[in-house]
Amino acid sequence: MDTASMKRALFPVALCLSGVALIPALGQAADSGYNIWTNEYTVSRQQLQSAIAPQFPRKLRYMDIFDVTLSNPRLGMLPADNRMNTVVDAQIANPLLLQRPVNAVLTLSSAFKYDPATRSLRLDAPKVDKVDSSDLPPQYAQQLTALGNAAADQFLRDYALYTFKPEQLQMNGKRFEPGKITVEQDAVKVEIKEK
């Protein structure tokens, strides 16, 4: 069945959904789905938040002297940059160098990529965009940024946020694969194209 025939066959289903062309995939939350009119699969910001939340709180070691705890992730979308941002609370401790733990807020951003081997949407090129801390003088911002970049690279690079099920990429004997990934205000849209 070609794309035009598939759209005609699914038109009544779309009408039953009150004009909304979003068809949830099997086993997925209702806020995600395949849009037959645009050949895109949508993953909502809420789904992405749910996927990254299990990574926190996260304890890391930096340069074998600092203990870093990252917690309370808050996701946002950066459509203009085609990236997602994550704001996290950070606590840095070292009993030998610091009298008390240092608290900071890190704003990290990351692009997306598709990994065909695992059929997953993954984070790509994470980096620290901003560091806020009232516990440290401004001259330490560079070191805190370096620490944040190390932390981002250690646990966000290649992190799988969404995995497509095989049936989501097959229809009527044809195989499909994700293409262009576009970040929007409340979701990530993934183009689905025939192999």
TrEMBL record:
Protein name: Transmembrane protein
Classification of source organism: Bacteria, Pseudomonadati, Pseudomonadota, Betaproteobacteria, Burkholderiales
Secretion signal, residue range per the UniProt entry: 1-29
Stored Gene3D superfamilies: Uncharacterised protein PF07273, DUF1439 (3.15.10.40)
Source domain of life: Bacteria
Keyword flag Signal: yes
Keyword Signal in annotation: yes
Keywords noted in UniProt: Membrane, Signal, Transmembrane
